[in-house]
Amino acid sequence: MRLSRSLIPTLKETPAEAQIVSHRLMLRAGLIRQQSAGIYAWLPAGLRVLHNIANIVREEQARAGAQEILMPTIQSAELWRESGRYDAYGPEMLRIRDRHDREMLYGPTNEEMLTAIMRDSVQSYRDLPQMLYQIQWKFRDEVRPRFGVLRGREFFMKDGYSFDLDYEGAVESYRRMMLAYMRTFKRMGVRAVPMRADTGPIGGNLSHEFHILAPTGESGVFYDASFETIELGDDAYDYENRADLDAFFDRMTSLYAATDEKHDEAAWAKVPEDQRREGRGIEVGQIFYFGTKYSQAMNFAVVGPDGARVHPEMGSYGIGVSRLTGAIIEASHDEAGIIWPDAIAPFRASILNLRQGDQVTDALCEQIYDALGRDALYDDRDARAGEKFADADLMGHPWQIIVGPRGAAKSQVELKHRRTGERAELDIEAALAKVRL
Ligand code: P5A
């Protein structure tokens, strides 16, 4: 994209309403704009990040065998009366009436809806197991929406649901998702640690939260340093091998990890001292096993192998897709701005033309821009070099290709790596090769 023709409204001033660094940087880098409390519009660069995150989630869900669907944001109150959650959910639910005075709501989650869809479509145990997910907007009327997209009212969530014939199957689905989540967060360039959690309004008796480590996280976290080095690849754990899933789950749950709410000093004392890590975490995902809570309440049963009716065992699995944009910035920035991990950066490189209007410099920039296509943001604005440097650091693309008239005369550019700050004078091909890697 050409910056001169893009809506990437960067700000020099720090917005007064933003208390936390990711919120400030998301506003300053022109990624989002607030529309109401906890409700944001995503501008072009911000939407690219959101899509990059969602696509990594999609790829890892597919590898784990989950199927993508899309359910509506608006749901009927009737559905929620069936499970008993319509009254129980409280003021966090945004309740709406349509023109016929029917009670509707903006979905805060979709356990009921998918249970009803399954009830209509699945009659036999032979159709199980099933694992389905969507990436869709949710609304929760949080008492205190704050910290930008970290705690919004409208937010983008990946929500997945599993249906199994029995407890063993449900546990395998749960373990499969835990592995998928660890792989998903690793691909995004951040470290996430799973921690035992309470189940809250979703219900059930087994749940883990996934926390990204960041100094500004809402929860205090305590974990064993071995989490930092666990091998997660296909060679280590294969989804198709039940023993692998069990071994993975045992490894994850045998290591100490807890938020301050669940911290256990006695167990902590048993972790070798040089392995103890304390910090703060942001919850970017949570998974739940809740058995037949919804299938029973909503009368969803299949015919089992012996002809008897069986209520399927269920779990649900959430990732805060919009929250991740803020959480990753909390984990990866410096005083100058965002430092995007490669996999989710809106652009791989910015091209900085330091002498807009100079024929040789312009021609070289155009050549690089052509070569990189949609992976590059070309700063072709009629602006001072200092402004371009500051904006490139603020926006945080992994590479900056700096093109000035002196280098351009020799077909050379300066290549800066945002994360390390390393700079090198290179000819164009060498610079392109590094950026494309
Ligand atoms: C699991 C999927 C559920 O809702 N039902 C379907 C289950 N889980 S959850 O933990 O309540 O939410 C899943 C993830 O969504 C993110 N999240 C939020 N992100 C931004 N603003 C919010 N107000 C918000 N609330 C939840 C979190 O990352 C959470 O882990």
Describe this entry's structure for a reader.
33% of the residues lie in helices and 28% in strands. The chain is α+β, with helices and mostly antiparallel strands and 437 residues long. The chain has two domains: 3-338, BirA Bifunctional Protein, domain 2 (2-Layer Sandwich), CATH 3.30.930; 349-436, 3-Layer(aba) Sandwich (Rossmann fold), CATH 3.40.50.800. Strands 3, 7, 8, 9, 10, 11, 12, 13 and 16 form a nine-stranded mixed sheet that branches. The chain has a five-stranded mixed sheet with strand order 20-19-21-22-23, with helices on both faces. It has a three-stranded antiparallel sheet with strand order 4-6-5. Strand 5 (94-97) and strand 6 (103-106) form a beta hairpin. Helix 2 packs across helix 6 (167-187), helix 2 packs across helix 10 (321-331) and helix 6 (167-187) packs across helix 7. '5'-O-(N-(L-prolyl)-sulfamoyl)adenosine is lined by residues 109, 140, 142, 151-152, 155, 157, 159, 202, 283-286, 288, 316-318, 320, 322-323.
Counted up, domains total 2
Number of strands: 23
Fill in the CATH topology of the largest domain: BirA Bifunctional Protein, domain 2
Shape: globular
Tally of helical segments? 14
CATH superfamily of the largest domain: Bira Bifunctional Protein, Domain 2
The biggest sheet, with number of strands, parallel, antiparallel or mixed sense and barrel status, is: 9 strands, mixed
Which hetero compounds are present in the coordinates?
'5'-O-(N-(L-prolyl)-sulfamoyl)adenosine
CATH class of the largest domain: Alpha Beta
Low-confidence stretches: none
